[in-house]
Amino acid sequence: MSKRKVKDVHRPIGECITQVQQILRERFCHQQLPDRPEGLEAQYKHLLELLRRSAIQGESNSVLIVGPRGAGKTMLLQCVLRDLLQEKEAQKNLLQVHLNGLLQTDDRIALKEITRQLNLENVVGDKVFGSFAENLAFLLEALKKGDRSSSRPVLFVLDEFDLFAHHKNQTLLYNLFDVSQSAQTPVAVVGVTCRLDVLELLEKRVKSRFSHRQIHLLSSFGFSEYLQTVRTQLSLPDDFTDRGFAQDWNSSIQTLCEDKSVEEALQRHFNSSKDFRSLHMLLMLCLSRVSVSKPSIKPADLLDASRLCLCDAKANMLHGLSILELCLIIAMKHLNDVYEGEPFNLQMVHNGLRTSAAAGVDPAGRRIFGQNPEGVPADEADAGPQSDHGGVAEIPTMPHRRQAVGHVGVRIAGL
């Protein structure tokens, strides 16, 4: 009886809001993995069984996880490793090496990282090896158990796998796949990539040693599943401390997802990207508006957050610039095209701007900026650019800024 009273006690609203934000932020920032990856049950089962055979039975394997960015490749692998390491035998035997193609840009750096993660710096010492294969074989030999009859299985996770294919001679991939095909040491190689044509990047000798196992993660869910995901991501768990607050919160989320304007906003996000990271960013903006004075998410909060997520950040930065600053940006864009990405300095930008200002007319013969044209009265010049005889472009207000920038761009493009 006393336990039920403790569960049903009402917490202060401020404490409930703090706990809600903590739970949902951890969920949105991927700090808390789901129990099972939604919609990826078959891929989860396949990968778990594959790595279990490597960790427990000492079977060598290689596999590629392929899918677009944000499809859940890393989340799937982390869920599999979490569940696999709950088995005592796998936790005792399995060694892990995580490499990233963005960080380990060549095989020498990758080999140093392998040595560091396997804690074999003291074993290697100042030894000199004749080849990459000899060095890798020495590292794997050093992992043998005390009876020297068997080795501990090693899991190699290669994130951004396609970048490793650009290494010289693909030495790292060749040796890892070669070891996984032999009976020397139990090795599992898991590559994670977003390129569907990744096998075309491999050399023939590397491709022949790969098992050609691929796990594809394709976004096949529809908008109804997307909307259900939003509802699930924003809902509080059943074990929330204040049950009354949790019921009110979940009821408000249900009402929110049934709102027509909210459905339209979520439909726009779904059509632009099915990446759950962009969805989590949207929900994080909604969550930031929750406070003691407003303890629930309203449709207006989600609509405002949707406008912030879908707006063009670069275009917004240009809205606050003066005409002169816009002219400098156009001049820099022109120089960047002329020099094909080579560096240039502010003096070159200024010279280009002065040349354009000195010429004073665009290819159509209209005045862009500068002094009044000869023979045109000041009041006519102040009236803005003339359609036929060429006047002076007035310094425009905000609604006319895009048109003025367009005239300036035409002139600078003709430099």
TrEMBL record:
Residues 59-220 form the AAA+ ATPase domain. It is found in: Nucleus. Its main location: nucleus. Residues 368-388 are annotated as: Disordered. Pfam families: AAA_16, ORC4_C. GO terms for molecular function: ATP binding; DNA replication origin binding. The keyword DNA-binding applies. Keywords: ATP-binding, DNA replication, DNA-binding, Nucleotide-binding, Nucleus. GO terms for cellular component: cytoplasm; nuclear origin of replication recognition complex. GO terms for biological process: DNA replication initiation. Belongs to the ORC4 family. PANTHER family: ORIGIN RECOGNITION COMPLEX SUBUNIT 4. Component of ORC, a complex composed of at least 6 subunits: ORC1, ORC2, ORC3, ORC4, ORC5 and ORC6. ORC is regulated in a cell-cycle dependent manner. It is sequentially assembled at the exit from anaphase of mitosis and disassembled as cells enter S phase. Interacts with DBF4. Interacts with POLQ. Component of the origin recognition complex (ORC) that binds origins of replication. This is Origin recognition complex subunit 4. It comes from Amphiprion ocellaris.
